[in-house]
């Protein structure tokens, strides 16, 4: 199925002070694709990811979402257009209940997309929160403070928070980081089960998770893209093999 480009990253550079860590990167995501960003430590994956989310400014280049340039927009404005993200470490409010965190998330990124007037919004919001909690099997813990739950549950909550606004583009920053092998499997299952109309871009260190989930993979080294392709093409790519296995292989 030919799909249109939903996210167009064109010639993007990012620098901290005078140090350029992303150098002229171009990347186009098709609507509905699941795209993994791989690379060695310090390759610039998180910086590029943060540039797309609107958390670091671009030194050069432009980013368009659904044909509209978003390079100058703040993170919350991008969220309102339908871009949601998760973080490597949880940003939820640990002393607040799971339900309260969901509400905050819905208000923060999704409320304009509910499409009804403020005075009548509350029941619709609660229904949306209930649906999300149910879908993630979190109803039983909905009244518990997030900080009292296990690390795995907290990561689930974070993903649920990102999804509650029904984003078109989901940015996942190392979704499997710190998880047990069992929790990783469950996460992969959950991500695989998401509706195909959600486009996904994720930074992931776990090659197995990345290659299993992704339709296409981009590999970065030293701030530049060295390969983009299907998981099979990436596995067979000599430069990628050299990066991950060393020159002798
Ligand atoms: N806020 C910052 N200020 C200065 N330098 C930074 C900052 N954030 C990252 N860097 C540097 O930019 C380079 C790219 O880092 P980045 O985190 O984007 O890479 P990465 O590919 O995500 O690495 P990792 O896999 O280790 O998370 C690194 O050399 C890092 O030390």
From TrEMBL:
<dbReference type="InterPro" id="IPR027417">
    <property type="entry name" value="P-loop_NTPase"/>
</dbReference>
<dbReference type="InterPro" id="IPR051120">
    <property type="entry name" value="ABC_AA/LPS_Transport"/>
</dbReference>
<keyword id="KW-0472">Membrane</keyword>
<protein>
    <submittedName>
        <fullName>Amino acid/amide ABC transporter ATP-binding protein 1, HAAT family</fullName>
    </submittedName>
</protein>
<keyword id="KW-1003">Cell membrane</keyword>
<feature type="domain" description="ABC transporter">
    <location>
        <begin position="7"/>
        <end position="247"/>
    </location>
</feature>
<keyword id="KW-0547">Nucleotide-binding</keyword>
<dbReference type="InterPro" id="IPR003439">
    <property type="entry name" value="ABC_transporter-like_ATP-bd"/>
</dbReference>
<dbReference type="InterPro" id="IPR032823">
    <property type="entry name" value="BCA_ABC_TP_C"/>
</dbReference>
<dbReference type="GO" id="GO:0005524">
    <property type="term" value="F:ATP binding"/>
</dbReference>
<dbReference type="InterPro" id="IPR003593">
    <property type="entry name" value="AAA+_ATPase"/>
</dbReference>
<keyword id="KW-0813">Transport</keyword>
<dbReference type="Pfam" id="PF00005">
    <property type="entry name" value="ABC_tran"/>
</dbReference>
<keyword id="KW-0067">ATP-binding</keyword>
<dbReference type="Pfam" id="PF12399">
    <property type="entry name" value="BCA_ABC_TP_C"/>
</dbReference>
């Amino acid at each position: 199925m030919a799909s249109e480009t939903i996210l167009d990253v064109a010639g993007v550079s990012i620098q901290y002070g005078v140090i350029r860590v992303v150098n002229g990167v171009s990347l186009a995501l098709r609507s509905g694709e699941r795209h993994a960003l791989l690379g060695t430590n310090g390759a610039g994956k998180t910086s590029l990811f943060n540039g797309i989310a609107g958390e670091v400014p671009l030194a050069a280049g432009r980013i368009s979402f659904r044909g509209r340039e978003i390079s100058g927009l703040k993170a919350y404005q991008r969220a309102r257009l339908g871009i949601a993200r998760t973080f490597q470490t949880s940003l939820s409010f640990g002393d607040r209940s799971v339900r309260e965190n969901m509400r905050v998330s819905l208000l923060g990124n999704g409320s304009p997309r509910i499409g009804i007037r403020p005075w009548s919004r509350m029941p619709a919001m609660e229904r949306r929160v209930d649906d999300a909690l149910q879908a993630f099997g979190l109803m039983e813990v909905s009244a518990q403070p997030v900080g009292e739950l296990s690390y795995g549950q907290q990561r689930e909550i974070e993903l649920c928070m990102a999804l509650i606004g029904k984003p078109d583009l989901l940015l996942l920053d190392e979704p499997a980081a710190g998880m047990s092998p069992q929790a990783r499997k469950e996460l992969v299952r959950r991500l695989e089960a998401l509706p195909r109309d959600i486009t996904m871009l994720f930074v992931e260190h776990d090659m197995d998770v990345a290659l299993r989930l992704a339709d296409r993979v981009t590999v970065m080294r030293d701030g530049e893209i060295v390969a983009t392709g299907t998981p099979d093409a990436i596995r067979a790519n000599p430069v990628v093999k050299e990066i991950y296995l060393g020159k002798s292989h």
